[in-house]
Amino acid sequence: MNVEALRSRVIRLLLLLAVTMPYLLSAQDIAGDYSLHGFREVASGLRLSADHTFEFFYTYGASDRQASGTWSLDSGTVLLQGSKKKGQDFKLRKSAREGGPGMVIKISDKNTYLQQSVVCFAFTDRDSMIEESGIDGIVRFNADGIKRIELIHAVFPDEPTIIDCSNDPSNYFEFTLNPSLGEVVFDRVAVSLEGQSLRFSNKYLFGDRVAEFTKP
After folding, report:
1. Rg, the chain, Cα only
2. Which residue among 66, 79, 97, 189 is buried most deeply as judged by most CB within 10 Å?
3. How high is the mean pLDDT in each 10-residue block of the chain (216 residues)?
4. pTM to 2 decimal places
């Protein structure tokens, strides 16, 4: 066998090894503490335990987030399944039909800081609108025929709470905040495994960038 043929064979074997290595790893190999890199003013970490549980934390400014759940390995990809269910940060406490046009949305919480910065989306058959609550927790839409509203907290953004209003004559909706607000949804999040690094996306935490977590 000449040198060129041997070199070609070695390269093919190395490529095959690189592709198949993630499939051969055990939970013990993957387990460990991973830290976020490349994001200024953001601290975040992911712990994968050998018993297939995980813990996640994220801190940015006044926003402290966390998550926990289980992880599995599927064809070389780590899948994260958290305990928090999506779309349940806000709980509808009251709805009513009141006089006057438009719609009023009120956010109520003992902590008035949390009543503000709630981004409310309203959708009619032809239009969409967006408003943000102030310190009083109130949002007003000067439009009738609203079919759907969606709520996201700007300080703790996550999958929106969606309310279907298409068959509801109410134009006043009052919501409270669920304790899950500070948690993060991980609903079978696919995490790519590249050597000592884990990479995944979350538009609410990292925008359009892919976050990379590495072992120390």
Report:
1. 23
2. 189
3. 64 52 66 96 97 97 95 93 96 93 96 96 96 97 96 97 96 96 97 94 97 94
4. 0.83
